[in-house]
Amino acid sequence: MKLLLAEDEKRMADALTQLLALEGYEVDHFADGESALMAAESGIYDVMVLDVMMPRMNGYKVASEIRKGGNKTPILMLTAKSELDDKVTGLDSGADDYLTKPFMSKELLARLRALTRRNQGYRESGPAFGDIELRQETAELFCTSSGRSVRLGEKEYKILEYMIANQSQILSREQLALRIWGYESDAEYNNVEVYMSFTRKKLAFVDAKTEIKAVRGIGYELRCPDVQ
Q1: Eight-class DSSP state of 122
Q2: Which of 142, 159, 164, 163 is nearest to 151 (CA)?
């Protein structure tokens, strides 16, 4: 689960990053609003946590710009302000939920779980699309139409998980590279093609109707003839 954290106070950011990493989130931290907005526009995140008071662009403006671009990723707003008008401003800007500082770690994590559950089409076994399901505990790809399964490598799993979460979109190589390898990686875009090939072979192995289609000059899309 990839999370964008926009928080300018270093001690708070470090504590949140550590907490979220322990819960299994892959955290990208940004210390100002403009940097956070640029990163958000990549479309690689499952959820975003935005502080209101940040340099260069406040959290309200960041959320508003994210929504103007058509990005529907869940946003949790963090702020030291507790007045009703401030909460209304945050929600009207595009945030899905609002948490006032100071807060308990358990509440933050519970709200993030609720936001991500609401946003993603998960069946009990895990992310699913067409005739494929991802089994999280065993990192397996299961095909419901053939009954066959196969173990996935870490990056293969992340590719399918990301594509299922964005099943109505064509994902560019740049988006996939950032999502799978991250901002700090030196991985090149041809790595995406290599791992796409591996993932397609796993889909073929389980006789899935669901396919990864290359859209010339744009990127990749998950398709299934039974899903319109």
Answers
A1: E
A2: 142
Residue 52 amino acid letter: V
Domain boundary among 63, 92, 119: 119
Count of domains forming the chain = 2
pTM > 0.85: no
Cα distances (angstroms) measured from residue 99 to each of 66, 104, 116: 19, 10, 16
Mean pLDDT per 10-residue interval, the chain, length 228 residues = 90 92 90 92 87 89 86 86 65 84 87 77 66 87 90 91 87 87 67 90 94 91 80
Is 158 in a helix, a strand, or coil?
helix
Same domain, 141 and 53: no
Of 153, 200, 169, whose CA–CA distance to 42 is shortest? Answer: 169
CA distances from 165 to 86, 118, 159, 196, 216 (A): 31, 12, 10, 16, 22
